[in-house]
Design brief:
The chain is α/β, with parallel strands linked by helices. It contains five helices and twelve strands. The strands form three sheets. The protein has an eight-stranded mixed β-sheet, sandwiched between helices. A two-stranded antiparallel ribbon has the order 2-3. Strand 2 and strand 3 form a beta hairpin. Helix 1 packs across helix 5. The chain is globular. About 40% of the residues are buried. Bound molecules: cytidine-5'-monophosphate.
């Protein structure tokens, strides 16, 4: 039996960048490495939680964490929806594609002789976290906001619009932090409280701080 501040708490975390198929050999994706999500899963496990990691990276998480591999947004949404009622904390650390190819070609798309340009039609993906925000009952919902400008203002908007309980705002325009980096620096936003600045540190350290802040916000002591 695990001990800790999140003992018997069910935590579901998403990690990585979604991959949207174009044809059998091509995918539309982004620069998310999944490191922050994996660090959060390890920190939640350390705090005694029952942890499920829904990940696009193909990497097996440490022993003790339930692993659900997915690739695209709709698989990720399905995996979350199936577990939402039984979860207490959901952390959407994944970088979810806003768009996906309108059609997935069954065969590899070939370039035509003389063809110099190619238009790819895209359609909007569902906003997974906004959907969960609209249907949440007891769940504590945590979103991420990767921004390159007006970090706090843009993140404040997402906090309200998506009905999340905490937003982890990440300035991905700065060198050495964010996508792919070992380190991160974030601001935690919750409605009705002042922004909490977590200065640059390894993602494992930031993850432990985020998990503590979530535990404190759910059950203040
Ligand atoms: O609006 P934006 O994509 O910046 O919001 C980021 C947050 O929303 C992240 O927590 C991300 O996982 C989530 N998101 C989502 N579904 C989308 C797009 C983003 O759940 N289609």
């Amino acid at each position: 039996r695990r001990q800790g501040r999140l003992q018997d708490v069910h935590v579901v975390i998403t990690a990585g960048g979604t991959q949207e198929p174009i044809d059998p050999v091509r995918r539309l994706t982004n620069r998310s490495s999944g490191k922050m999500g994996y660090a959060l899963a390890a920190a939640a496990l350390q705090a005694g939680a029952n942890v499920t990691l829904i990940s696009t990276t193909g990497r097996q998480p440490p022993f003790g964490i339930t692993y659900v591999p997915v690739t695209d947004v709709r698989q990720m949404q399905q995996a979350l929806t199936a577990r939402f009622a039984a979860s207490d904390i959901v952390i959407m650390a994944a970088a979810v594609a806003d768009w996906r190819p309108a059609r997935v070609a069954q065969e590899k798309i070939k370039k035509q002789p003389g063809q110099e340009t190619w238009q790819l039609d895209l359609v909007r993906n569902p906003d997974i976290i906004a959907g969960l925000g609209a249907q949440k009952t007891h769940q504590f919902l945590v979103g991420f906001a990767a921004e390159t400008q007006d970090l706090i203002a843009n993140a404040e908007k997402k906090l309200a619009a998506k009905h999340v309980d905490m937003l982890v705002a990440n300035d991905v325009g700065k060198p050495g932090i964010g996508f792919g980096a070992e380190d991160n620096a974030v601001v935690l936003l919750q409605s009705g409280t002042a922004p909490q600045y977590l200065p640059k540190a390894p993602k494992t350290t930031i993850a432990a701080q985020v998990i503590s802040a979530i535990a404190a916000a759910r059950t203040p002591d």
